[in-house]
Amino acid sequence: MFLCSYFLSFYDKIITLITKGSPTKYTKLRNSEIKIPRIALGTWVYSGDVWGKVEETECIQTINTALDLGINMIDTAPIYGYGASEIIIGKAVKPRRKEVILATKCGLIGRGADIKHNLSKKSILTEVETSLKRLQTDYIDIYQCHWPDSNTPIEETMSTLLKLKEQGKVRFIGVSNFTSTLLEEAEQYTAISTLQNQYSILDRTIETKALPYTRKHKINVFCYGPLAGGILTGKYKTEPEFKGADTRNFFYKYYHGDVFKKVTQMVDTLRSFGKPLNQVAINWLLAQEGISTVLVGCRNVQQLKQNAEAADWELTSEQLRIIDEQCKII
Fold first, then answer.
1. Contact, 45 vs 208, CB < 8 A?
2. Could you count the other beta carbons within 10 Å of the beta carbon of residue 61?
3. 56-68 and 84-93 are packed helices; what angle lies between their axes, rounded to 10 degrees?
């Protein structure tokens, strides 16, 4: 146990030295000295299924470029391609493990339409070992419950995660897609370092209860879906057609009918800001109080660099007001 603690302390010092001279902006992880980037790499797109096919070499090149830019946190999950994303990340980061803050998840089991929520002790213990193997590491920096599981007592889930933390297999415990009520209940059993929820200009559900709770209790918030499945990039002029398994058919409901028309009108307004639309969407999130990190899914180096540039400027107060006004009509 002493050697494990010594190693992790040494690891933190290395991370600090690596990020010290980086142009990337950082914030601190709750109750720690660990610096996490304001923009981090999300890797759902590396699944190779619901977002279309990807090239492994291109994914690895994107990960290495992210690390070179100081974007030292990578978020993934076993359900992304049923292990495909974790395998790619494992190959990419193995030579540079000391530079990386790895965040993965547990709790979604199955394939296709037969996916179950399972945060039982038995399932978590199986999942963590599989993730460690795929990621080619002996510890996970941030281990998150992917979705709530109404069939498992939250005490069982959190006690299991706490045990993994005591064993050194997990460094920090997080949750994803949790309400403020579930978050408060989870904190009765262990400290929750992070909440990862969907948040974008088009989906502001988190603002009602979850975000006020995390602000009050100083819990880091990771935002996924900042571009609302891509519609906030402005690339869709007419209603697109996606294959049945495509995530934009069921997860991001902005692509059809009146909603699509209203969103495209909003996007036209955002164009007047004179900045790339993807950067406007990311920058808006960075301007929101209590947001630690925006997770951006990048298929290639070009997308990564353009998304990362969103942290190099700030929306004006007038532009923020315009966005808020536009949100009311969506």
1. no
2. 15
3. 50
pLDDT tens digit sequence for 287-318: 999 999 999 999 999 999 999 999 999 999 99
Per the structure block, which two tokens stand in for 169? 């297999």
Tell me the per-residue pLDDT of 220-248, one tens digit each, with 9 for 90 and over.
999 999 999 889 999 888 887 777 666 66
Structure tokens at 267: 């996007």
Distance CA(119)–CA(228), nearest Å, equals 27
Q: What is the mean pLDDT of the chain?
A: 90
Residue 88 C-alpha from the chain's centroid: 17
Biggest CA-to-CA distance, the chain = 60
> What positions carry a catalytic annotation?
80
The hierarchical CATH code for the domain 2-327 is: 3.20.20.100
Q: Are strands 39-42 and 293-297 parallel, antiparallel or unpaired?
A: parallel
Q: What SS3 state is found at 35? A: strand
pLDDT, residue 2, reads: 46
Per-residue confidence (pLDDT) for residue 8, from 0 to 100:
55
Helix H or strand E encompassing 132: helix 121-135
Angstrom distance (rounded) from CA 135 to CA 19: 22
Give the Cα separation of 326 and 330 in Å (integer). 7
- Which backbone phi and psi does 208 adopt, to 5 degrees? -70, -50
| Beta-carbon count within 10 A of 223 CB | 25
CA 101 to chain centre: 12
The predicted model scores a pTM of 0.89
Domain regions of the chain by residue span: 2-327
For 83, other C-beta atoms within 10 Å of its C-beta total: 18
Which residues, in sequence order, are CB contacts of 268 under 8 Å at separation 6+?
Answer: none
The C-alpha atoms of residue 120 and residue 161 are separated, in whole angstroms, by 10
